[in-house]
């Protein structure tokens, strides 16, 4: 079923000579299938097809696009065991996680299908003409959101389904009316090809234009670079490292026509633990956090990599409890030898910094590609002065910072890089005594959590998954939930345009009954 070829539009294609294989980290062996990297010519073909497809796809009704998205979801489910087995063989992740992520992927597709079928997401805004206005008459002006054009999506290593081929970025872009070219992640190209086959089948079944979707294989940065520089590409979605995201952002900015790159990158997700909470539930908090730090072998962008508290007996007890709890958790497999290699290097670099104490470091034998979890602690002053300690260690590692006082806690938070999340652990009314700390935290993050853990991102309209740089390149947008569609559109106005030529959402009759802002009043009525 897996061919190792690229999908250039609806056609399988493998004109190149550069090949590679994926890797099974559980078995520590290469998988069987061989993948052919796309050639420069194939990339040009995919972009040309996407540009042609856009001419048609941008005009297709929300109802038809919704049918396309729902059919993709059906076809992904129809892949059944073949998809789950391939996913597990390319990631080392367990079957339960594969099925959970498939559920989320299908759910996201259906969520966008519902959104576009209903239609109000285009934010139709109408200001009717005032021909008798003095001193100047007013024209009839109508605005709505329209798609940008072909989008390149870089599949994420840590979410082979929910943030890759048919993941959140792809679902949102297709929903908005943009064709998508996926730069498949080389660590899970088999999973990528299977999902791509589901998308292509759905496109054919629902009569979508050829080129609405392509899936490109690569095993190095050349393919991604060409795609981002291509004049036919109008925006980029990316999930991965700060280094990778920033490189693509710079490339896009240097183009003759700069384009937006919506990159969701590293984050250490600070957690502030207040004294009363530590006094009352140090044991249970330690257990919960040992679980959150090691969840998915720490390979989540919302992994809590930084815990901050006020120096006290309560904090010392918590560090001891957390260290004991985390050592008792069975180590688990990482996604790929490169990922575990990066984890070991970054962990080593972090824990070898001066004035840092390692309070837990799993030192028993582990299977190859299994990660050894660790906890370290430092004084607030040391943390403030050493930027290395602020860097993401992607994996099951966290550092606990012992602050001298509230002022130092606030200063540390204020000087952190931008983060996806911040968490406050507090009891009773103690949060009200930390308003400056909370305000500082709010200013550095995209989502703030009270008495919970940052791992686990609910897919819902109110979710913000994004934050100040470098957690994302544009903190005005979320990468999760229905509002992520706004990354792929631009506002567009029609002035004095005849009613019969207007798009359906802006017509006087309002045939879809969408909610519109008409002469400053929100209504679903016709004009
Ligand atoms: P990555 O190195 O950022 O790569 C992600 C994708 O971007 C890959 O497909 C890669 O292509 C491409 N890419 C990277 N740099 C590029 C460049 N300069 N030009 C063009 N394309 C480029 O991330 P990764 O492979 O998923 O994992 C590596 C590390 O990233 C992890 O160890 C972790 O530290 C971090 N990471 C963080 C998160 C998070 O959510 N915070 C998520 C995933 C990974 P090729 O593979 O084809 O070269």
Describe this structure in words.
With 527 residues, this protein is of the alpha/beta class. It folds into two domains: 9-14 and 30-130 and 139-265 and 477-487, Aldehyde Dehydrogenase, Chain A, domain 1, CATH 3.40.605; 270-450, Aldehyde Dehydrogenase, Chain A, domain 2 (3-Layer(aba) Sandwich). It has helices at 40-57, 62-78, 80-91, 95-118, 168-176, 189-205, 221-229, 242-254, 275-294, 313-327, 337-351, 380-385, 406-414, 435-444; strands at 6-8, 11-13, 19-20, 23-24, 29-30, 35-36, 125-127, 141-147, 151-154, 180-183, 213-216, 235-239, 261-264, 270-273, 306-310, 357-361, 374-379, 397-403, 419-425, 445-450, 489-495, 516-518, 521-523. The strands form six sheets. The protein has a seven-stranded mixed β-sheet, with helices on both faces. Strand 1 (6-8) and strand 2 form a beta hairpin. Helix 2 crosses helix 6 and helix 4 (95-118) packs parallel to helix 5. The longest helix is centred in the N-terminal third of the chain and has 24 residues, at 95-118. The radius of gyration is 25 Å and the shape is globular. The mean pLDDT is 97. The protein binds NADP nicotinamide-adenine-dinucleotide phosphate (NAP). NADP nicotinamide-adenine-dinucleotide phosphate binds at residues 154, 156-158, 183, 185-186, 218-221, 224-225, 239-241, 244, 247-248, 265-267, 301, 339, 342, 394.
């Amino acid at each position: 079923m897996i061919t190792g070829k690229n999908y250039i539009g609806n056609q399988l294609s493998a004109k190149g000579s550069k090949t590679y294989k994926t890797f099974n980290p559980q078995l520590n062996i290469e998988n069987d299938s061989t993948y052919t990297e796309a050639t420069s010519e194939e990339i040009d073909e995919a972009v040309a097809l996407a540009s042609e497809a856009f001419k048609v796809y941008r005009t297709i009704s929300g109802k038809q696009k919704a049918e396309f998205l729902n059919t993709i979801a059906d076809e992904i489910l129809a892949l059944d065991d073949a998809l789950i087995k391939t996913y597990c063989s390319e990631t080392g992740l367990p079957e339960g996680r594969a099925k959970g992520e498939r559920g989320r992927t299908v759910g996201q597709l259906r969520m966008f299908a519902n959104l576009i079928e209903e239609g109000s997401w285009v934010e139709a805004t109408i200001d009717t003409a005032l021909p008798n206005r003095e001193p100047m008459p007013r024209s009839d002006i109508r605005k709505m959101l329209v798609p940008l054009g072909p989008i390149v999506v870089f599949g994420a290593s840590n979410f082979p389904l929910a943030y890759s081929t048919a993941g959140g970025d792809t679902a949102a872009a297709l929903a908005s009316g943009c064709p998508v070219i996926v730069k498949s992640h080389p660590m899970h190209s088999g999973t990528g090809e299977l999902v791509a086959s589901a998308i292509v089948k759905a496109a054919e079944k629902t009569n979508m234009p050829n080129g609405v979707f392509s899936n490109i294989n690569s095993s190095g940065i050349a393919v991604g670079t060409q795609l981002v520089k291509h004049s036919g590409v109008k925006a980029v979605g990316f999930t991965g490292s700060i280094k990778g995201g920033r490189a693509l952002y710079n490339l896009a900015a240097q183009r003759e026509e700069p384009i937006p790159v919506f990159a969701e990158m590293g984050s250490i997700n600070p957690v502030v633990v207040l004294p009363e909470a530590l006094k009352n539930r140090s044991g249970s908090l330690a257990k919960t956090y040992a679980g959150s730090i090691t969840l998915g072998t720490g390979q989540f962008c919302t992994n809590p990599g930084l815990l901050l508290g006020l120096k006290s007996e309560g904090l010392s007890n918590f560090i001891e409890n957390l260290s004991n709890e985390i050592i008792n958790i069975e180590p688990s497999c990482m996604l790929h030898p490169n990922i575990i290699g990066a984890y070991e290097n970054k962990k080593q670099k972090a824990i070898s910094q001066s004035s840092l104490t390692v309070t837990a470091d799993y030192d028993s034998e582990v299977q190859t590609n299994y990660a050894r979890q660790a906890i370290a602690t430092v004084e607030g002053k040391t943390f403030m002065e050493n930027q290395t300690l602020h860097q993401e260690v992607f994996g099951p590692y966290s550092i606990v910072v012992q602050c001298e006082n509230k002022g130092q806690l606030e200063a540390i938070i204020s000087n952190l890089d931008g983060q996806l999340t911040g968490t406050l652990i507090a009891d009773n009314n103690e949060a009200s005594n930390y308003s400056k700390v909370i305000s500082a935290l709010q200013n550095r993050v995209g989502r703030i959590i009270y008495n919970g853990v940052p791992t686990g991102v609910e897919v819902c309209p109110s979710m913000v998954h994004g934050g100040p740089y470098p957690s994302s390149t544009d903190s005005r947008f979320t990468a999760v939930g229905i509002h992520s569609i706004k990354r792929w559109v631009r506002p567009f106005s029609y002035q004095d345009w005849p009613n019969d030529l207007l798009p359906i959402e802006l017509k006087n009759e309002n045939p879809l009954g969408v909610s519109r802002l008409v002469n400053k009043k929100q209504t679903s009525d016709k004009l």
